[in-house]
Write a structure and sequence with these properties.
The complex is a heterodimer. By secondary structure, chain A is an alpha/beta fold. Chain A has seven helices and 15 strands. The chains are: A alpha/beta, B alpha/beta.
Chain lengths: 259, 322
């Protein structure tokens, strides 16, 4: 079974940077890392290919400046190769432009399965996997918490408000995976060394037949009108626990009349 | 009125329209002359409640026979736009299915989706969405520039549902478009996970745990405290990612939005990701070892201390009170 996993390289959430007031986008001059959400998709893809008895796990990512540091992390986990789309024309891309770009790269091969996280940790639109499915005209299951591969089809447990649904989905398909459902492996030293020499195919919009005006700022169907400070919430009382802080909490809850 | 017609993607919960659906209809009344609802199903169960909140029509696809909401409802909405019978704007709740429908619709209409909207503002002849970034410290205002109707995904609890006293909405059929292979996924079974307490996003009191608990077993402290307070247990993304509790427990930007009367954060540092999901709470109590943790910046009562010392004593004191 051949799987393509969409991964995003994002600024470290511990140091998310700031908004550039000129372009109204996130400043991306910081080092990028593999979005932790994507480590679950990579891990699940590796496990599905192992249990299917063979196949490949390929990564696809869109990032500025041919950034590969996050991709190397996923390659070190065990993915075989990566496609990296990097092009100045992609700057300012919204979720739909991102989906079009990734779908164009994925569509060059015919994978059995496309996997992604449910949402990125920086943009969190949560729409890209389903948009990719629509662009490739494939069935999809989002918010998967468990995936079983059968004969030409998947059985997926899909998160719902009340519990979960069991969904039968023929392959090829797109599946987005919720965090925490598998334990992402730590890259071994051997894996990290091997990742340095794994193939990363660098692609431009022209390579994928994407019109530069269809993506990025030019293709984005939205206008950012304003960026303003949100109303702040004031902090209240702060005390050090001296062994009796629980009494203060009980008194506080009493004052709120919730007990 | 700014717009002539808004379509709200409606969802059913417990045999009636979901709270999210009614919140969106209520807000849409301010923005458009006509508010209508689209459902992937027969629509009968929600016609009365959406009508009472001001929707005049329910466009119902009829039974999807297990087919996914995203592809079937999204394609049906797009077909209506193509036929000239669609609305001037689509509003969808940020739910599992709401996101799928918006995503499929956006590809069919080649129109962007404006996501994570928490407010909608009339601006001349268009509607501007407001989206919080950086943990809600900054608001971004965005308008759609596509020729097709704008698509906005609105976060739960952004508006308060208010009835307008309307009669039941008229249920009209909405034609499905042939989805081909893309429509082949089918839900075969639905499982409801029983929980004895209130739902996380409806509870008056929420007690959430984070990494500061130290290990998965210590989450039992959170469950005990929540149960004593007749509240719901929640979690930070860090411990959901670590597999201590399921995704459905997650409070935050990528999880549930909660606005309880009291929110108790235990061992949660207050990453921006978490703050977005809970800082609308009426009162916030935080317990954390690190005196510099950002959670104290939003807490009405902050306890600098070890959760393993404070919480067991708190549980004991509450039990003693009866």
């Amino acid at each position: 079974m051949d799987v393509i996993v969409c991964v995003k390289q994002i600024p470290d959430p511990a140091d998310p940077g700031e908004i550039n007031p000129e372009t109204k986008t996130l400043k991306r001059d910081v080092k990028l890392i593999l979005d932790e959400s994507d480590s679950y998709g990579v891990e699940y893809a590796l496990q599905l290919v192992e249990s299917a008895g063979g196949g490949s796990v390929t990564l696809v990512s869109m990032a500025p400046n041919n950034e590969t540091s996050g991709l190397r992390t996923a390659l070190a986990m065990g993915a075989e190769s990566a496609m990296l789309i990097s092009d100045d024309a992609l700057q300012g891309s919204d979720a739909l432009s991102t989906a079009k770009t990734l779908a164009a790269a994925i569509g060059r091969s015919n994978p059995d399965l496309v996997m992604a996280a449910t949402e990125s940790s920086d943009g969190y639109t949560g729409t890209v996997p389903e948009q990719i499915a629509a662009l490739l005209d494939l069935p999809s299951v989002t918010f998967a918490k468990e995936i079983t591969v059968g004969d030409g089809a998947l059985t997926v447990k899909r998160q719902t408000e009340a519990g979960y649904d069991v969904v039968e989905c023929p392959l090829p398909a797109v599946v987005s995976v919720t965090a925490g459902v598998v334990e992402p492996r730590y890259p071994s030293f051997k894996g990290i060394m091997a990742a340095k020499n794994k193939p990363v195919e660098e692609l431009s919009c022209a390579d994928l037949g994407i019109e530069p005006t269809a993506v990025g700022w030019a293709g984005g169907g939205q206008e950012i009108l304003d960026i303003v400070e949100a109303p702040k919430r004031e902090a209240g009382e702060k005390i050090e626990d001296e062994g009796d802080a629980h009494e203060r909490i009980v008194a506080f809850l009493d004052e709120l009349k919730v007990l | 009125m700014t717009l002539a017609k808004i379509w709200v993607y409606g969802e059913e919960a417990n045999g009636t329209a979901s709270a999210n659906t009614l919140e969106l209809i209520t807000k849409a009344r301010e923005l458009a002359t006509t508010v209508e609802v689209v459902v992937g199903g027969d629509g009968a169960a929600i016609a009365a409640s959406v009508g009472e909140h001001g929707a005049t029509t329910v466009h119902a696809t009829g039974d999807l026979a297990g087919g996914m909401q995203g592809v079937h409802v999204g394609n049906a909405m797009a077909a209506a736009v193509a036929a000239g019978t669609g609305p001037d704007m689509f509003l969808l709740p940020t739910t599992y299915d709401g996101r799928d429908v918006a995503a499929r619709l956006s590809v069919k209409l080649d129109a962007t989706v404006i996501t994570n909207v928490v407010d909608l503002i009339a601006d001349g002849d268009r509607i501007v969405g407001v989206e919080p970034v950086f943990g809600g410290t900054i608001d971004v205002k965005t308008a759609s520039t596509t020729a097709n109707p704008p698509i906005m995904l609105v976060r739960p609890k952004s508006f308060t549902a208010e009835a307008s006293g309307g009669g039941p909405a008229m249920v009209m059929p909405l034609a499905l478009a042939d989805a081909g292979a893309a429509g082949a996924a089918k839900t075969t079974e639905k499982f409801v996970e029983e929980s004895d307490g209130p739902k996380l996003d409806e509870a008056a009191i929420v007690v959430s745990g984070g990494r500061g608990l130290g290990d998965a077993d210590s989450y039992a402290l959170i469950e005990s405290l929540a149960k004593l307070l007749k509240g719901a247990p929640g979690a930070s993304r860090a411990i959901v990612d670590a597999g201590w509790v399921p995704y459905s427990y997650q409070v935050g930007q990528t999880g549930k939005v909660v606005k309880p009367s009291v929110y108790i954060a235990v061992g949660i540092s207050g990453a921006t990701q978490h703050l977005v999901g809970m800082k609308g709470s009426k009162t916030i109590i935080a317990i954390n070892k690190d005196a510099e943790a950002p959670i104290f910046g939003v807490a009405d009562l902050g306890i600098v201390g070890d959760a393993h010392k404070v919480v067991p004593k708190l549980i004991e004191a509450l039990e003693a009170k009866g």
